[in-house]
Amino acid sequence: MNIKEVAARAGLPAKTIRYYEEIGLIRPARSENGYRSFGAADLHKLAFIGRARGLGFTIEDCRALLALYEDRERASADVKALAGAHLTRIEAKIAELQAMKRTLAGLVAACAGDDRPDCPILSGLSESGCD
Amino acid sequence: MNIKEVAARAGLPAKTIRYYEEIGLIRPARSENGYRSFGAADLHKLAFIGRARGLGFTIEDCRALLALYEDRERASADVKALAGAHLTRIEAKIAELQAMKRTLAGLVAACAGDDRPDCPILSGLSESGCD
DNA sequence: TATGGGGCTTCCCGTGACTGGAAGGTCAAG
DNA sequence: CTTGACCTTCCAGTCACGGGAAGCCCCATA
Fold first, then answer.
1. Best of B25, B80, B82, B86 to mutate (most A CBs within 10 Å, chain A)
2. Nearest-CA distance from A22 to chain B in Å?
3. Per-residue confidence at A127, pLDDT binned at 50, 70, 90?
């Protein structure tokens, strides 16, 4: 399988797959002509990485997850800890964004949005919030 | 006011303030010795930027917001449009993170988290989800 | 056999918004 | 005079790629 086909099957851009090889996430074989030659195992790994990335895991998380995946003597506790930490990060990020959303939505709602210059959004950004 | 003081008052790292000057967000005066010399207006601008950044606006958004802030003939509709677009982006990001959270929480909940290798998290990442 | 058009390769630069660190000038206190 | 805190500039790195150039390789068609 050449890169374009494995890219289509894994749902990843070819560029991304070359990048994953560069950083050592995958090690596809090479044909005589120098082309990368992907087998079923490579495809499987790439799909795995793609799904992990889709859940927001970092590349280093993916590396660790792959290592655990390939370690038949792993403890599921290790996987759970990794995923749990990531879940916590996601929840923190959601909370942060929701706080932004609340503030911003309040400002936007207060703004007339007409052709006059008075604007509670700019006032809100301008004021120190201590008064 | 030297950079350290304005940094403390604006609640931004000095490095960040130098960066903001480099990209043209602010133009502090210079003392004879070459040190940046910040006035009240600079501090006010930096605090404005800091708050906008805190609400998740990009630097380019901040540039536009500052321009609107300093334009006495602005239309509040322009500000509202900018903020509204940002609000939409935030909401989309929250939805994306919540989808991740749901999937991930399901996997984590299904994982025993003991010393055995069986792990629904790894299985979930490994499977194509079509079955 | 020429040629055209994909596909493949490597390499380098750019992204956003900083952050860290090195090398060196300046200033006030002891 | 020295020490140490502060300031300056410049360069490199972050994260996870994406764009694009320059140059092979391969196959089909005329």
1. B80
2. 22
3. confident
HSE-CB of B128 using CA atoms within 13 angstroms: 7
Torsion sign, CA atoms B20, B9, B47, B91: positive
- Whose tokens are 């000095």? That residue is B14
What's the N-to-C CA distance of chain A in angstroms? 66
Instruction: Give the number of beta-carbon pairs within 8 Å between A and B.
Output: 154
Secondary structure, 3-state, B38-90: CCHHHHHHHHHHHHHHHCCCCHHHHHHHHHHHHCCCCCHHHHHHHHHHHHHHH
Asked if the model's pLDDT at residue B131 lies above 60, the reply is: no
pLDDT of res. B92: 97
The pLDDT value recorded for residue B127 is: 85
**Contacting residues for B20 by C-beta, under 8 A, at least 6 apart:** B26, B46, B49
**Are the beta carbons of B94 and A91 separated by less than 8 Å?**
no
* DSSP H or E segment with residue A111: none
Identify the pLDDT of residue B129. 57
Q: ∠ CA(B110), CA(A56), CA(A78), 5° rounding? A: 45
Alpha carbon B75 to its chain's center: 25
Specify the amino acid at residue B18. R
Residues of chain B with Cβ-Cβ distance to A121 below 8 Å are 76, 79-80, 83
DSSP for A37-105? E--HHHHHHHHHHHHHHHTT--HHHHHHHHHHHH-TT--HHHHHHHHHHHHHHHHHHHHHHHHHHHHHH
Calculate ∠ Cα A53-A95-B50, nearest 5°: 100
